Automatic annotation (TrEMBL):
Pfam families, per database record: PCMT
Major enzyme class: transferase
Organism (species): Ideonella lacteola
Region (Disordered) location: 1-30
Family: Belongs to the methyltransferase superfamily. L-isoaspartyl/D-aspartyl protein methyltransferase family.
One GO term (biological process): methylation
Protein name: Protein-L-isoaspartate O-methyltransferase
Enzyme Commission code: 2.1.1.77
Organismal lineage: Bacteria, Pseudomonadati, Pseudomonadota, Betaproteobacteria, Burkholderiales
């Protein structure tokens, strides 16, 4: 991220410590949070018998079991858990993968991209919720999502916000997500085909910004388009040698305050459209 301040601001303090700001919820798991999952771990999950005998693999009780597991893994934010209990993740994946839809695993959505693990989706949205303004309002306000993918996370965000603007650089995925969200009649979501590295100026400023792809640094446009009082959560390279981490940026009247969350491994943020 460029530490260059947009005009009209006073100070930017980087990095701000995590302590003394939003209370950090318990870590969902030690070590690196991977939106993608190793195959042997997927097999372990399958062995945990997510679906009890007699239940359809795509049924609401199976989804509730996923929510229970998120809760026991440390996700504390009830609105996030409720939203994830509502969104039918199996509707966003290929029919051949429906049986795995509620395991804590990433799944292929085509074009070498993946739908993120439920625990990573929950954790990132929880970080957004812990921002000052979102905590006070009780919702995420107007959200900018970078990396629509299949539209699953956008659908979860739609339950928690007044409007979701979601940008995807791959046309085929943009269209796939549009089909999913239309079929499920997800409200308050506007999908944009374009290069999310530029954010989406027409609807700025955003109360919350979330990215599902990570680069070396945060594009300056995202910082510019974050409202004062808003919070951004995105993967980016840490400056302490930990590799890619979740970066949390709070914008106050004083400027931008950056803190760091868990180590993560996201797909690369790429420029241009395809
Ligand atoms: N949240 C998604 C997961 C998306 S995976 C879901 O629920 O399915 C990350 C996505 O980011 C990919 O679809 C990839 O194409 C997209 N992406 C990467 N760089 C981008 C950019 N500059 N602008 C918009 N999307 C981008």
């Amino acid at each position: 991220m460029s530490d260059k301040k947009p005009a009209g601001t006073r100070t930017a303090r980087f990095p701000a410590s995590l302590e003394g700001r939003a209370p950090a919820p318990a870590m969902t798991a030690p070590g690196v949070l991977r939106p993608q999952r190793l195959l042997h771990e997927v097999a372990q999950d399958a062995a945990r018998q997510v679906a009890p005998r007699g239940l359809g693999l795509d049924s609401a009780p199976v989804r509730q079991r996923m929510v229970q597991r998120l809760r026991s893994d440390g996700v504390r934010c009830e609105p996030v858990l409720t939203a994830m209990g509502h969104v039918p993740r199996h509707e966003f994946v290929d029919t051949a993968l429906v049986a795995q839809a509620y395991e804590d695993t990433s799944l292929p959505i085509g074009l070498s991209q993946t739908i993120s693990k439920p625990s990573v989706v929950a954790r990132m949205i929880e970080w957004l919720y812990l921002g000052e303004a979102a905590r006070q309002r009780g919702h995420l306000g107007r959200v900018l999502e970078i990396g629509t993918g299949c539209g699953y996370q956008a659908a979860v965000l739609a339950h928690l916000s007044t409007q979701v603007i979601s940008v995807e650089r791959l046309k085929a995925l943009h269209e796939l997500a549009a089909r999913h969200l239309h079929r499920l009649q997800v409200p308050r979501c506007r999908l944009v085909y374009g290069d999310g590295m530029r954010g989406h100026p027409p609807n700025a400023p955003y109360d919350t910004i979330i990215a599902a792809a990570g680069g070396e640094d945060l594009p300056g446009s995202w910082l510019d388009q974050l409202a004062v009082g808003g919070r951004l959560v995105a993967p980016a390279r840490s400056n302490d040698g930990r590799g890619q981490v979740l970066v949390i940026v709070d914008r106050t009247p004083d400027g931008w305050h950056r803190s760091f969350g868990e180590a993560v491994q996201f797909v690369p943020l790429k420029s241009g459209t395809h």
